[in-house]
Every structure is written in structure tokens, then in C-alpha cells.
Design goal:
Two copies of one chain form a homodimer.
Chain A (H helix, E strand, L loop, with lengths): L10 H8 L3 H8 L7 H14 L5 H8 L4 E6 L5 H16 L3 E6 L4 H13 L4 E4 L10 H4 L6 E4 L7 E5 L1 H14 L5 E6 L4 H16 L9 E3 L4 H13 L6 E4 L2 H13 L9 E6 L2 H5 L5 E4 L2 H17 L7 E4 L2 E3 L9
Parallel strand pairs in A: 1-2, 1-3, 3-4, 4-5, 5-11, 6-7, 6-8, 8-9, 9-10
Antiparallel strand pairs in A: 10-12
Helix pairs in contact in A: 1-2, 1-3, 5-13, 8-9, 10-11
The first copy, chain A, binds a DNA duplex (30 and 30 nucleotides) through α2 and α4.
DNA sequence: CGAAAGCGTAGGATCGATCTAAATACCAAG
DNA sequence: CTTGGTATTTAGATCGATCCTACGCTTTCG
């Protein structure tokens, strides 16, 4: 028994088996209509008989389209990004692209590594939610002209951008609280090195001023954007003299932490104290009380981002584009206004 | 001005520029030591000068290693899978593999599509958490011998498997409850078409029997594995005559929903009613009361799965392997036993 | 009846790298 | 000034598909 080295079945084999040329076999595979019905049948039969598996890698080399797009996320563990990623993957798959995943865990160095790998792959384009850092001119921006790229959720200089109007969202929230009679409103959970956070705080401040309230820097309590962060912030919140009666939180996860801590302190959320979150994650609907929140629809964001990238791949030299989605307020019970 | 078609810079260009052959240029790129120092320097300079970008796709065609691995997840929105995916991606990246992502949303058809795309890519191996369904002989199993594949978190016939000892975890939980004096223990949130759920129910039943308690099918309350599912199950739970005094939940998300609903009904969790979850997701630590849960470490699971796949890629014909991680109980306050 | 037109198919070049085997360069010893 | 051996370098084939051009055959028509 000589053991067969198990060579790959290629178009050549198919062609030989069906008694046609590679070119013809290729035409059949690609479903080009110019092939005679009889020939097509014969080739298809050979394909099935020999168990041929298409090799897109080879095809891509020739056609110069890798059919792959890179998706670089700062933290796919965050439900918001997870949702957005799913939407992106779906949209790309619909256009026959494969998604290359890279999770950076907010690590700049890892981001650069992933970027390099994907570029060399070569991916035809890249979607990136840049890792947090001071300057926005980092690795991603450096590739700006070289490769179709789109930033989402967080901006990167020189890149197309799909994001949410965070300032507007914060304003909606503050106005809602104001209408319900709350006057001393805190902002919990921002962090100064995130553009998203800055924009939300800006909107918060603007809305306060517009409502005739004074912006008090003491009421802005920074924290990590996690449940724990929100939970811990409440201690500081309660120590503020002339204690706030409502809080706008950086995101839902923080808000849920805040609610828990407040209730543990005997403060009733929804009557007496108002809490609003950001993002409208699934859990927000099932908390007690239901969390009023600013819906930033990760799915739509993902779709918009993917759309931008596909467009840019088609027209690499078009001017930079930006899509800003408008958030809307989802009113539940955490501010006392049950609709 | 004639506009340059902006041809790609290839090894040929580098070779010409540096006055060497393609082969030599290739040696330099791959860091092969047989190249003379002077030559290497010259080539590197040309690479920088012309802005050469490596094209692994082309290399892969020749070397027959695509350097890509497929990761197919049933729902990356689930925190447990998200964590596992991150761990997988990291492990693969460490071994120089790119991760192709596919999210199936528990959809069999999508799973088949993704599987096909990845196989044709061609990925060198696939990690899959199969979508829920009756028979485990579906699309993934069909490719068993053809392509290195590993199933994780959920079994698939004929594939390597990395998972958690769910039965054992359930037993730990039940024993814990028993020791604390709970005698009427429900199981909330299973679904009969998930092998994971079956194993957990099995462990639950076995532990009951072992403790001298009787297994009562009425106490097994199925639901979707979501917060809402847990929340809604409580209504049924409270209607059972001779009401249970404790509940083991299918996972933490369900458990959190259960806790909320219980508290809303005025039942105090942690004193009077015990609740245990599964998975130890980050939120479990921050709930009120802290959720006692069975830790199934998604990170470890992901690493184990990736490891299995790498091994199988090396030795495609080795016998099927299985890794079962042992869970441990994380005791918090939801059963009244504060450590 | 021969040229033009149309359809289906085939052959060879090509994408951008790597591999193989062999050629060339370099250097010290005989 | 060979010879032998080591150190570098190279031409050409190759991976598996697609593109381009041309060619054979049949059909159409002046």
C-alpha cells in the first residue's frame, strides 16, 4: 500500500476529469452563462465526484480582491461593541466579505500589531474602534490614505467616522430630568481621555446652562465605565453637600451599578432620585426600576460603519465622510416618569 | 500629467531597486540568516524607500498555510462567549494566526454558510460553538475528518471538544444549598435542546438523589437563557405548591432576572431564599445580593479550545480529544452564606 | 460558395510570494 | 595557480485560481 499524499483537488483535476480546460471549469464554477449546458453538467458532476473545494485564496490573488475586511474592536466584551460587531459582521457577510477579528483590549501596542497583520493580509479595508489614548493621531490615522478605513464609536483623525451624537443624547437626558423637576443633576462615570465621554459631558453642561441651571464641576464624578465604577461612585455622590437628586450616567452598565448602590443606601430610585443611562443595552429593560436611557442603537451604528467602509472601498479617493446617528430617549421608570 | 495607476510594490520592485534577485529579497524579508549583512541592509533600505507592504496572501498560496482560523460563535453578544472569543483570538494571534469571525445568531443556515466560506477561504482550522438544535450531527460534524475543527462550550459529534463539567458544577451548587439547609430546590432556565442544559439538569438531579432528596420534574422550569427568561420564570415558581426555597439557575443572566423578580415579590434573596447562577460573569459580583455562582471561566475555556485546535492542525489524524474544565463554586451572599 | 458573425472552448500569461537545486563568489590550503 | 569547501545568490518552477486573446466550428447571408 503506498499511502496517498492526499493532494488537494484543483481545477486542473476537474478539467482533466471532465475533459475540458481549466478555463472552462473556472467558468462553470463562477456560474458564467456562456458555457454550454452539457459541458456545465459534466463539469459539475466531476466537481461532486472528486469532492472539489473552491480555493478563494488563489482566486483572490489573481483578482486582487481579498474579500476580507478587518474589524478591530477595543473591547468586544462590552455589550455595546458586541452588538455593533455582530451588525458589522452581518452586513459585510451580505456583501460577501469575510471579517477578520482583532480585539485590542484597549492596548495601543496590540492595536498596532493587529493593524499590521490585517494590512499585510491584505484586508481590503478596516473598521476600527480605536483604543483609548490621548492623541488621536496614532497608528490607525497613519494609514489614512493607504487603505480604506472607517472609525466607529470613537473618532480617529483623517478617517471616515460613524458615531452617535453623544452631546445631543446627553441634552435629551438632562432636559427630561429638568422637565420632571430635578434641579441638581450629577454626571457619573466619565473619563477625560475618551472623546465619547467628553462629548457627553459637553452636552450635559450645555443642557444645564440652557435650562438656566449652573454647571458644577463637583457634580461630574469620573469612574471606570463598568458596573463596579458606577457602584463605587455612589459613595462620592452621597458625600457631596447639597446632595444631587438625579444622575446622568456615562452608560447603562454604570447606571445599573449606581442604582444598586443607591438602593442599598436606602435611596429609592424612580421616586426621589432619578437615574438615566446611555446605550439602552438589553439589561436596561429588566432592571428594577426599568432604566430610562439614551438609546444609541449599536446595530444601526454597526450597519452605518460597514456601509461607510463598503462605499470607501468602492471609491478610495472620495472625501472623508461622517455619519452621526441621532439618539433617542427611552423612558422607563428610573426617573419616576412611567409612560 | 499622466496619472500613475498606483501599482502595488512587490518583491520584484524591491529586488530591482536593491540590485538583487527576488529570491534574495524574499530571504531578507523572512529574516533568513544566510544573507550577507551588506545585502540585507541594501534590501531593507529599498523596502523602506519604496514603501513595500508584505503580501501574506501570496505567500500563503505558495506555502499552503493560510494562517487563518475560523471562529464561529452562536452568539457573541452573550458575555460568556464574548470572553471566550477574546481568549481564543489572543491565543491564536500569539501563534500568528488571524481569526475569521462568524456569528450565527443560533441560526443553522447561517452556520452552514459561514462554515462554507471559511472552508473555501481556506481557513486552516475552525473553532465552533454550534448553534442549538436537536441532532448534533449537523453541518459542523459533517466536515469532521476534512478540516481541523474543535467544538467548544457545546458538543458536536466527531469533533474535538473543550467544555466545562456542567454536571459537576450543578452538583457543587446543589450540595452547597443542601449544606445550608435548603431542601426544596428548583432548577430554572434550562432548555431541552441544549446539551449544556441537559448536563446541568443531570448534575442537579444526581446531586439531589445523592443527598437523599427526591427529584421533582415540576421543579425544573424551562426558559430562554436570558434575563427576561429568569424574570418571567419566577411567576411560575411562585405558583408551585409547597413553594421551593432555593433555585439553581441555568446561568448568571437568568439568575439575575430571578433575583430581581423575587425581590419585586417581596421575597428576600439570601435570607429565606437561595439563588445560585452559572458562569460567574462580571456582573455577578455586583448584584445585590452578590450572586453565588458556579465559575466556568470563559477565558480558560477559550484558551483550552484554541490549544486543542493548534494541536490538531499539527496532527490532523490524531484521535479525537476532549478537554473538560472543572468548575468551582464562588460563594457570595445570594444563598445566605457570606464567607 | 466564401466571408462575416457568433458561440463555446482552449492555451498561456498572470497575481506575489516561496521552494528547489544549482550556480557563483570568496577564501584558505596545497 | 589550482582545488576544495563554505558562504551567498539566483533562475525557474510552483501554489490555484482568473484574465485575455485566439481559434475552431456552426450558422447566416450577400
Amino acid at each position: 500500500m503506498d499511502e496517498a499524499p492526499k493532494r488537494r483537488v484543483t481545477l486542473v483535476d476537474i478539467a482533466a476529469d471532465a475533459g475540458v480546460s481549466r478555463a472552462t471549469a473556472s467558468l462553470v464554477i463562477r456560474n458564467v452563462s456562456s458555457v454550454a449546458e452539457g459541458t456545465r453538467k459534466r463539469v459539475l458532476k466531476s466537481i461532486k465526484r472528486l469532492g472539489y473545494v473552491y480555493h478563494s485564496g488563489a482566486a483572490n490573488l489573481r483578482t486582487q480582491r481579498s474579500n476580507a475586511v478587518g474589524l478591530i474592536v477595543s473591547d468586544i466584551t462590552n455589550p455595546f461593541f458586541a452588538e455593533a460587531s455582530v451588525a458589522i459582521e452581518e452586513r459585510l457577510a451580505a456583501s460577501n466579505y469575510v471579517t477578520l477579528l482583532g480585539n485590542t483590549s484597549e492596548d495601543r501596542a496590540k492595536e498596532d500589531r493587529v493593524l499590521k497583520t490585517m494590512r499585510e493580509f491584505p484586508a481590503q479595508g478596516i473598521l476600527i474602534c480605536p483604543a483609548l489614548e490621548r492623541d488621536t493621531s496614532g497608528g490607525a490615522s497613519a494609514l489614512a490614505g493607504q487603505l480604506p478605513m472607517v472609525a466607529f464609536a470613537r473618532r480617529a483623525r483623517g478617517l471616515d467616522y460613524a458615531g452617535v451624537d453623544d452631546a445631543q443624547g446627553a441634552q435629551l437626558a438632562v432636559e427630561h430630568l429638568y422637565k420632571l423637576g430635578y434641579r441638581r443633576i450629577a454626571f457619573i462615570g466619565g473619563s477625560s481621555n475618551s472623546s465619547v465621554s467628553q462629548e457627553r459631558v459637553d452636552g450635559y453642561r450645555k443642557a444645564l446652562t440652557r435650562s438656566g441651571l449652573k454647571f458644577d464641576p463637583l457634580l461630574v464624578i469620573p469612574s471606570t465605565p463598568t458596573r463596579r465604577g458606577g457602584y463605587d461612585s455612589v459613595r462620592k455622590l452621597l458625600q457631596i453637600e447639597n446632595r444631587p437628586t438625579a444622575a446622568l450616567c456615562f452608560n447603562d452598565v454604570v447606571a445599573l451599578g449606581v442604582i444598586e448602590a443607591l438602593q442599598l443606601s436606602g435611596i429609592r430610585v424612580g421616586s426621589g432620585f432619578g437615574v438615566i443611562g446611555f446605550n439602552n443595552i438589553p439589561d436596561a429593560a429588566y432592571s428594577l426600576p426599568g432604566l430610562t436611557t439614551v438609546d444609541t442603537s449599536p446595530r444601526q451604528l454597526g450597519e452605518a460603519a460597514a456601509e461607510l467602509l463598503l462605499k470607501r472601498i468602492e471609491q478610495p479617493d472620495s472625501p472623508t465622510r461622517t455619519v452621526i446617528l441621532q439618539p433617542r430617549l427611552i423612558v422607563r421608570e428610573s426617573c419616576g416618569a412611567s409612560t
